[in-house]
Amino acid sequence: MSNTISFNKTEFLISAPSITKSPADTGREVAFAGRSNSGKSSVINALTNNKKLARTSKTPGRTQLLNFFSLSEDRRLVDLPGYGFAKVPKAIKKKWDLSLAGYLQERRSLKGLLILMDIRHPLQKYDWQIIHWASESAMPIHLLLTKSDKLKKGAINNTILKVKRELKQASLKANISLQAFSSLKKTGLYELKEQLEEWLE
Q1: End-to-end Cα, the chain, rounded Å
Q2: pLDDT tens by residue, 80-127
Q3: Which of 37, 63, 167, 201 is spaced 20 to 30 A from 85 at the CA atom?
Q4: Residues 99, 96: Cα–Cα separation, whole Å
Q5: pTM score, two decimals?
Q6: Per-residue pLDDT reduced to its tens digit, 152-183
Q7: Which residues of 172-201 are buried (b: 16+ CB within 10 A; e: fewer)?
Q8: What is the per-residue DSSP string for 152-171?
Q9: What are residue 56's phi and psi, to 5 degrees?
């Protein structure tokens, strides 16, 4: 498949404090989820070839909103609040959890979920939590093992095999695929675009 969506034309749409404040639940959208230090903003910026589109912060957990980006009139990317790492009060973490679970299980226009994990620390507690939420809704999942430039090729392949093995043992309902990715070197960018196009077309 050739990349047919013009990701370079992606524009910021709106930041929503909750699912009830989100854009109309029509069309198709794909969400980006991940720990606060997984590099979500960097991946979105690499994908759209726009370093300023998604804000990158040196303080993990700064993004507490659902950030919507428009690809076209009825196609969107959604940057979900980072989880599991931020130094925030438990009450706010609980609110995030409820908001994320509600969004994943109720949003009809959501066609796929990208879960970003630092390839050096995959499948942490919160990663499993969001994988299970999505799986319960039979939501297609694509795991993006980020920061792959930090490892050598052999270590990357070993990590991918390990993650595949653990997912298989979990006997999940969802259809799950995975790949390594580097925002710095843009390794895996074409494969990521192919996956997004499959969900958004």
Answers
A1: 12
A2: 888 765 566 777 777 777 777 888 888 999 999 999 999 999 999 989
A3: 167
A4: 5
A5: 0.91
A6: 999 999 999 999 999 999 989 889 999 999 99
A7: bebebebbbbbbeeebbbeebbebbbebbe
A8: -HHHHHHHHHHHHHHHHHHT
A9: -100, 135
